[in-house]
Amino acid sequence: MLVLERILIAWEPLLQAYRKLNRLVPLTNMDRTLCIKFYSMIEPVRVVQIKAHAMQTFVIVDVYVMLYSLYTTILDVSKSFELIIPICRQLDFEDPDPVLRSHDVLQPATREARMLLGKAMYERYFKRYHLILALCQPKKIFSNNLGRPMLLKNVLEETDFKFSYLIDAQSMLYSPMMSRKIPAKLINATNIDRLDIPVGWTQESLQKQHFVFVNQFIWNKIKCVVETIAASIMLKKQQMAGSTLARRLERPAKRVKTLELLSAAFDIVADDDKKDVNGSGERFKTTTQMVNVEVQILKGIGAETNIELWLELAELSKWWAHQTSMPCLMQATLAIPANKPSSGGLECDLGSPSDVLAPKRLSLRAGLVEINMFLKINKHLILMNSAEVALLEKKMNWENNIPKRPVMALYDGGEEEEKEEEDTDDDNDNSPV
Amino acid sequence: MLDVLTSTSNSRPDVKRTLDILIDAWWEWCISHLIHLAFTEAFGTSIDPNNNKNVDVRYFFQRIMKVIEAVNKSKYLQGAFKETMLELLETYLKLLNLP
To answer: Is residue A75 within 8 angstroms of chain B, CB to CB?
Structure first.
């Protein structure tokens, strides 16, 4: 990208430099045109890539919307694309009116590149909105009954889809109104081969059904996460109730068994539920109930509010306000969108130890690990005040009483030098610490 | 592994399997990896020439890279280029051979 940007900025000086030295100019005007077209294709996609790299800020929704806008502009070969000339930006000249180029008038190489770019992005990302190709086994889902459309499965599971729809779920939790529109538009925009349409179905009916399937799948997955959180909240309550009961029982002589505590806790929770109203006056006996109520509240908010308001107010911090009405969903909302659109940060985290630790330190020897563990476990025995340390007399020959650590044959089987090193290390290991 | 901050990765089977099956997370394409691979496919810039899907563009980029290399390696060319650049644009930007 930078290669193209720099060469386009310096195009004229580069040609003049060749002419100055009376050398044959290796570049033509056609090359410049090609460079500009490639740059114009790469630049908008590259902006998304740079955006996705951000690790400190919340960018998932921006990336989601930008990918959608890519799909409708540069990746759509039926539409013209804007030519971008980097010299205008770099030197703060006034941007001229955008020059648009239709796909049909492009050179074959540029046309091919644009088609391949669209195809590559489609295969990896936009295929999830395809009515048939997004599914693993569409024949086991779509069928017909005397020419009428019939579903063999009403709810699709994870194994039925080729994609996880994480990014859709993230934006759905962020702003349900907005995220409902984008998948719907993308699903409606996908072209399907007539031969791929199952008998009895039409493209429109498939589009509607696919939208329902995707929405259902995302919500079911969100519900699963929320249910796990609800279970942990309930368990916490039970444990808290158990600890209060333990205090009430006042049996310091005997330890109250965990099972007894838990069984008692169940009774207390049941009693507390009658009084406790979870902030909104509702009782939840099971986690599923809890989850369903919270999802309904969220859907209600999404339906009532208009999209502009959502876009303005849709910030993750907003969820803290719903801490009492939707405690589980709030936690899920903070956790699911926390997945970054890029794995760059994580890869840096995993790769950074090699910057800090030297290779020798990375390969810790068994003896060193043993010593470290011994010291850590017996930390409480080590006296911090040197005056309190009782010194052993030399006459006692205490050094001879230290048991020798068995030498591991596996580590001594290497080269002689290593052997020697290990031996010396072992000797050191056995010396008093 | 509960402290993993992302479930996005490249599509290498080992990483994908770890996230998808072993941790039971929602595996999703890392957008950076995805776009990088899309560019490689579209512009034929894969390391292995046999995996090249766009021969014409690959040769075009190779030609451009050769020109840049020639300018950066030659003392005279670079000097003349720097001079003309300062003359015309009042700034000097070195040509880059790598992104």
So the answer is: no
A198 CA to chain B: closest CA distance, Å?
A: 29
Contact B57 A109 (CB under 8 A): yes
Interface test with A, best of B14, B30, B32, B52 (most A CBs within 10 A): B32
Q: Which of A79, A311, A358, A55 is nearest to B8 (CA)?
A: A55
A34-55 b/e (C-beta count within 10 Å ≥ 16 → b): bbbbbbbbbbbbbebbebbbbe
- Please report which confidence band the pLDDT of residue A120 belongs to, taking 50, 70 and 90 as the band edges: very high
| DSSP code at position B21 | I
| pLDDT tens-digit map of A149-177 | 888 888 888 889 998 888 888 887 776 55
Domain boundaries, chain A: 2-124, 138-215, 218-345, 367-430
Residues of A in contact with B80 (CB under 8 A): 17-18, 20-21
> Are residues A13 and B84, on separate chains, in Cβ contact within 8 Å?
yes
Of A35, A114, A166, the CB nearest to B28: A166
Q: Rounded to 10 degrees, what is the CA torsion of A249, A251, A257, A260?
A: -20
CB A135 within 8 A of CB A162: yes
Spell out where A214-313 has E strands. none
Interface test with A, best of B9, B10, B35, B58 (most A CBs within 10 A): B35
> Residues with Cβ < 8 Å from A114, sequence gap 6 or more?
A41, A74, A77, A81, A103, A106, B42
The residue written with tokens 């810790």 in the block is A364
Domain boundaries along the sequence of chain B: 1-43, 54-99
> What's B9's DSSP letter?
E
Q: How far apart are CA A153 and CA A157, in angstroms?
A: 10
From A4, A7, A116, residue closest to B41, measured CB to CB? A116
**What pLDDT sits at residue A309?**
46
